[in-house]
Design brief:
The chain is an alpha/beta fold and 350 residues long. The protein has 14 helices and eight strands.
């Protein structure tokens, strides 16, 4: 449908399509998923190749005016650690000395990816204590009215950010998920994503939930979670009614219902489990610092300095790292076209 011309004195804003990339998720997908990707020098290049190739695919499938990649810093997650010490303890995170990749190849490839992205006009941001998830969440919460956003990640926590103009490309699924197909991938209503994590916890982040409660049990006990937005207070009141009905009908009370009512957990949160878990998992309340907010706003509003940035540099990097051989002679001439188009669009001021 053609857009109508503006009426006298009226301005019609251009639609801006923005791609937000979870840098750590995309890099790890390539680095650990393409273990056998080596160049002719015997150097592993899986992290670089997969990162650039997936980014190229996304740019080929849709038109994006801006691309942002957000990285975790050496102390990222410390804001949550200060609230809940077991946070990500299962991943070997070190919030005292900072966490660096142990594998030298991983560390080297991360630096090289930054170098590639810099020359193709991708906006990047890393903060020592702020997690990439929080930068993405804050960006989504402060997005422009005329802005459509695609998030690229593996992290299911990001599902709570899906809105009318926000969708997610899940790397492992290789699928876009939005309001229209959300129920095909999740057993709960999109508005309850944070609530579910608050109640059951998140084992990947070492966050304990209600004792004995899993996602399937939660949805079976409270089917409204799959139907509409609900609150924890509603769930607790519903749990009380269910327990009363069981007692009145001489059925055995369910221990898990008592645990929900009383906020019982195996974790260190104590009776503040709902309050603490909400702070840990709710991306509608991203954990930011004033410094981080200022850095993000500057990155969003600023114009990228073109000095030193050149697509020809990328060709040099590709030859240096052996990506040209991996791509193949037939694909090589057209490989950078999507990035060239991004550079041209980056120069347009919205």
């Amino acid at each position: 449908m053609n857009k109508r011309p503006p009426r006298n004195g009226e301005k019609i804003e251009k639609i801006q399509n923005t791609l937000l990339v979870d840098g750590n998720a995309l890099f790890k997908t390539g680095f650990f998923g393409a273990k056998n990707q080596y160049n002719s020098k015997g150097q592993h290049i899986g992290g670089i190749y997969q990162f650039i190739t997936v980014l190229r695919m996304l740019l080929s499938e849709d038109l994006y005016h801006r691309v942002y990649v957000f990285w975790d810093g050496n102390f990222s997650g410390k804001l949550r650690y200060d609230i809940y010490e077991p946070y990500k303890s299962g991943r070997g995170k070190d919030y005292i000395n900072g966490t660096q990749p142990i594998d030298e190849a991983e560390l080297k490839q991360r630096k090289l990816v930054w170098e590639y992205l810099n020359d193709i006009y991708v906006r990047q941001l890393k903060d020592e204590v702020i997690e990439g998830d929080d930068f993405i969440a804050y960006y989504c919460l402060t997005k422009k009215e005329n802005e459509n956003i695609t998030i690229c990640t593996n992290d299911r926590d990001m599902a709570q950010l899906i809105q009318d103009k926000i969708k997610i490309y899940f790397l492992d699924l290789k699928k876009y998920v939005d309001y229209s197909n959300f129920s095909s991938y999740f057993c709960y209503h999109s508005e309850n994503a944070a609530l579910v994590k608050t109640m059951i916890g998140d084992s990947s982040d070492s966050i304990k939930g209600i004792k004995g409660l899993g996602e399937t049990t939660l949805v079976n006990l409270f089917p409204e979670i799959a139907e509409r937005k609900v609150s924890i207070n509603e769930i607790i009141e519903h749990a009380k009614k269910q327990q009363e009905e069981r007692i009145n009908t001489k059925k055995k009370p369910l221990k898990v219902l008592d645990n929900i009512i009383n906020g019982v957990t195996d974790g260190v949160q104590g009776n503040k489990i709902y309050e603490i878990n909400d702070r840990l998992v709710n991306l509608k309340k991203p954990m930011m610092t004033e410094k981080g907010i200022e850095a993000l706003e500057s990155l969003k509003e600023g114009t990228l300095d073109s000095s030193g940035r050149d697509l020809k540099n990328v060709l040099i990097y590709m030859h240096r790292d052996g990506l040209d051989q991996t791509i193949g002679e037939s694909r090589y001439p057209d490989y950078l076209i999507p990035f060239k188009k991004l550079i041209e669009r980056e120069k347009i001021i919205f």
